[in-house]
Write a structure and sequence with these properties.
With 354 residues, the chain is an alpha/beta fold. Helix content is 35%, strand content 14%. The structure holds 4'-deoxy-4'-aminopyridoxal-5'-phosphate (PMP).
Amino acid sequence: MNWEENIRRVVPYVPGEQPKDRNIIKLNTNECPYPPAPGVRKRAEAFDYGRLRLYPDTEAGDLAEALCQYYHIRKEQLFIGVGSDDVLAMAFLTFFHSGRPILFPDITYSFYDVWAELFHIPYEQKKLDGDFRIVKEDYMGENGGIVLPNPNAPTGILESVEVIEEIVAGNQGSIVIVDEAYVDFGGESCRKLIDRYENLLVVQTFSKSRSMAGLRVGFAMGGEKLIRYLKDVKFSFNSYTMNMLSIELGVEAVKDEDYFRNTVQKIITTRERVKKELAELGFTFPDSKGNFIFASHKDIPAKHIFEELKKRGIYVRYWEKPRIDNYLRITVGTDEEMDAFIRHLRSIMKKEPA
Ligand code: PMP
């Protein structure tokens, strides 16, 4: 036998580019353009590096306490992981073990099918309608689990808590994961449903609204039983996933609610302004409630704009995939960054220098 026949082969997820050049205007991976809360910096500067010889707290207790206080949940209802990617991967591994296909939209976060392939979980991608909305009825048949990002990515479309609740209530025989990576930018969280539905897991991240993508902090909220199962799998895999610094700096980010609200509001204000400017240039886009806009132009191919912007040092995200290959996903940056983006966009469209 050839050893290569024994390999677990996967086609990995491809993240957006992280260019070394700091002068790039980076609107391609939905990071926050503003720094983390000032307390995060203070705590990082005061950190006693000698403590790094010790293992971190396996339960990330201080961070768990801060999150529980902030979200009014009990620690038995909280799971913390290394970014929400880690939390989602653990949740796929733990909850989708029935052999029946799990369901998620055809246009969505492109990591879901990668995890399904990695863990040999059968899956069905349910087609979004012509306006990129989910068709609720598609999620009402027999299934091995459901994953719904809300707002969806890359469309930014938000479903109401009522619609999600109907899906959760209609699927009490399987686990429904709601990925709320972008919910802070104008959505309502389904967190309030976790006491009512044992089969609901709500996943969030510090990477977007809390400006901490580099520290890798994500978390899930759900019923006690669900969280216990999730922890059993996690602790069978690696008990020391959360590093000491991420735990401590994460606490500071949660403590500063004013800074958090302020940052989120700035992004929302910029997003709404950029929507108007894009519309004036003839772009169409769903009404995004995330920190990004998924835009298309009927006359100018998205791929051309993507390439031209890149030449000018502005990175946005483009996928050469069916149904979305004429769209650009543009992360909302600072006002200055978005001004430069619009200026270059105008010049590309008119074929003039910016
Ligand atoms: N879910 C969605 C929908 C996302 O877009 C992202 C960001 N790539 C994530 C989860 C993961 O983010 P992180 O691991 O940084 O928390």
